[in-house]
Amino acid sequence: MFVLGFRCGLNVVGSNVIDVGYASVIGADHFGAGEPVYGAFPPDNERGDTYGPVLYYAYVPFEAVLPWSGTWDDLPAAHAAAVAFDLLTAAGLWLLGRRWQGPALGALLAYAWATFPFTLLVSNSNANDGLVALLVTAAMLVHGRPVARGAVLGAAALTKFAPLVLAPLFATYGGRWARTAAGFALVAALALAPVALGDGLGTFFDRTLGFQADRGSPFSLWGLYDVPGRAVVLVAALGLAVAVAFVPRRRDPVAVAALGAAVLIALQLALEHWFYLYLVWFLPLSLVALLAGRRIDSIDAARDGVDPGAERMTTAISHGSSSDAS
Predict the structure, then answer these.
(1) How many CB atoms lie within 10 A of CB 296?
(2) Using CA of residue 120, residue 121, residue 126, residue 128, what is the dihedral sign?
(3) DSSP states of 199-222
(4) Which of the chain's termini has less CB crowding within 10 Å, N or C?
(5) What local confidence, expressed as pLDDT, does residue 303 receive?
């Protein structure tokens, strides 16, 4: 609690809002006022409309309470959103650990999030990447409910698009892919409806995925040195995203977290425009995979169609037993 409070204090007295946080507030202001978003950003952040609509929707309540002045000022709405996403992700990890193994793991996961340097960097940059981490954490919290996890993944995919690669993995968990797909499709349709009726899906695609596909960047091996082979890495990453939906067949929630982290890492390796703020996209999954562990019979429960998350998994962390945790 002290570390989280300290982080909030740093955000208030010693942080700035970078362009992505500014873009989020602009988009929220436009959506809240019923104005066009895609293709209608101001000159000082002309390409800030490169994100999915859910990201801008998430900022609407903060911008409504702390309105945008129309300039790149202190942007209190961006500060409030960054702090909220940070605290909610820590709370989600605490709840996830507590549900699976008790308060010890919950505290460990929340503490690991709060003390990881790059989560502080995201918070103090007031970037919007914290929302991706929050939604990925939420997907793990509802992993046992197919419609809910599909809905959360749909929201995550329409923030910064990268979480879309998690869809095959989460859809096939528990063998209820149709219900997961239904939840995903419902949220995607609701999120895109205002865009389709307003800016148009063509403009939306051109300003988001179209722009990203043609974007040059020095923030990766591919962009800085023009190294060949990025297409091969990208195809391999997408192939991995599909493969983990079927292999291994026996999966418990911890295995899903580990596979999900691997898929997001693989995708980031293929990005031409990569930034260290993206590390928090896969951090919640990585922390769960590295710190939660699992007992042997959870694999058997997954094989038999029983939700292992419904049981209290014991590990060496909380009980000092089972060499399997290594």
Answers:
(1) 9
(2) negative
(3) T-HHHHHIIIIIHHHT---SSSHH
(4) C
(5) 45
The tokens for 96 are 């996830």
Residue 321's region, left for phi above 0, alpha for psi from -120 to 50, else beta, is beta
- CA 264 – CA 274 distance, rounded (Å): 12
CA angle 299, 301, 304 (to 5 degrees): 110
Sequence-distant (6+) residues with CB within 8 A of 216 are: 223, 272
Q: Tell me if the bond preceding 194 is cis, omega within 30° of 0.
A: no
Report residues of the chain scoring pLDDT below 70. Answer: 294-326
Angle between helices 129-141 and 253-269 (to 10 degrees): 150
In the Cβ-directed half-sphere of 154, how many Cα atoms lie within 13 Å?
20
Distance CA 185, CA 164 (A): 12
- Check residue 214 and give its pLDDT: 82
pLDDT at 306: 53
Decide: 307 and 174 in contact? Cβ < 8 Å.
yes
pLDDT per residue over 133-146, tens digit each? 999 999 999 998 99
pLDDT score recorded for residue 300: 43
192-229 burial: b if 16+ Cβ within 10 Å, else e: beebeebbeeebbeebbeeebeeeeeeebebbeeeeee
Q: On the CB side of 304, how many CA atoms lie within 13 Å of its CA?
A: 7
Residue length of the chain: 326
How many degrees, rounded to 5, is the angle at CA 169 between CA 326 and CA 118?
A: 60
Predicted confidence at residue 294, as pLDDT, reads 56
Domain ranges of the chain: 2-68+76-316
Q: Under 8 Å CB-to-CB from 36, ≥6 apart: which residues?
A: 30, 198, 199
